[in-house]
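Quick one from the shared queue. A colleague (R.T.) flagged DAGKc domain-containing protein as missing a structural entry in our internal table.

Convert sequence to structure tokens.
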Amino acid sequence: MKRIFHILVNPAAGGGQGAKTAKQIISILKEYRFTYFLYATEYPGHELELTQKLLQTEKISPFPVDGNLAEQEIIPILVVIGGDGTLHQVLNQLHAYSTRYPVAYIKAGSGNDFARAFHSAKTPEEIFWGFLERQVPLEVPILRYQEAVTNQTGVFCNNLGIGLDGKIVKKVNLSKRKHWFHSLHIGKFSYFSSILTSFFQQRPFPIRVEFNGQERIFRKTLLFTVTNHPYFGGGIAIAPHAELTDDTFKLVVVQKMAFVKLLHLFYLILRKKQLRSKHFKHYSLKKLRVLATTPQDVHLDGESLEGKSYDLTITLTSQLFW
């Protein structure tokens, strides 16, 4: 059985960390004489085109349902090197075809929240040798959404944020300080540095949700986050008791409060003590419907979306990872 590696890298991820990480991995591939092909993104959204081309030319293939690789002489492995946004784009393109395409993911972004939940603190080299030892990929829960107004569907592996979270992410993505913070390994402060202006710009908004057989209306919502694991914003544990391997996902809601109280809540979040606050509402779910009738800033896996009204249904699905 021979492995062929298809390396899809975003060189610009993490302020150039993508290019550095790819260089490390390619050095290993050359040293051990692995067969590999390199695909580097050149502009935003290019990873979608590269993934689609790999699918259309059948250079990558779905993993057999029965898990039997005995008859396959060649095993193609898609290796994604980049940040959460790069992984998000690739997974969405794969899921448009099938849920059975496995991915090997090596972190190289600014936030790296999925890697933090999945790989812990492993180095790129450790991640590479780790997935090389696996004979069968792991089935990892991720989230699927369907937007009823536009009939758009997709997946996300980290978080969906509406309101304050979406506005903060938008500001962080546009900030020149983002890569500076992450170069100093204090990425979460790029998130916190945008809280002040975002708080005073974010108006409380009504949002209706349906889950666990009940309907609720949060009339003065500030922050509304659906998460697949503990982290968002570059390492902030918004849901400290969440596990990536859970058969549920988490919903966090924070409603209008005085700014001083919000600062105290974020202090508790930094200490992973937010569950003791009455202002922090959290729920464990398997299905969620979200109706936001006023246009709000929204992000998926740290990628900002156009602000508009939403009718979203969110459920669990899965992704295979080497």
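The first strand starts at residue 2 and ends at 9.
Residues 13-31 form the longest helix (19 residues).
Added to the table.
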